[in-house]
Amino acid sequence: MQAICQPIGSKEQALDLTSNYLTRHVEVNTDQSSSPQLTQAIGVRLFEQEQPLTAIYAVCSGTFKLCQRTAAGVEKVVGFRFPGELMAEDALYLAKYNYSAIALGDNSVCQVFIEQFSACSKLAPELQHNLIQLLTKQSFEQQHNTQVLIGKKSAESLLVAFLLNICQRSAKHSGSATELELSISRHDIASFLGIRRETVSRLLSKLQQEQLITLHNKQLSLLCLESLKKLTES
Question: Which domains are seen in the chain, by residue range?
Answer without folding.
Answer: 2-7+14-146 (2.60.120.10), 148-231 (1.10.10.10)
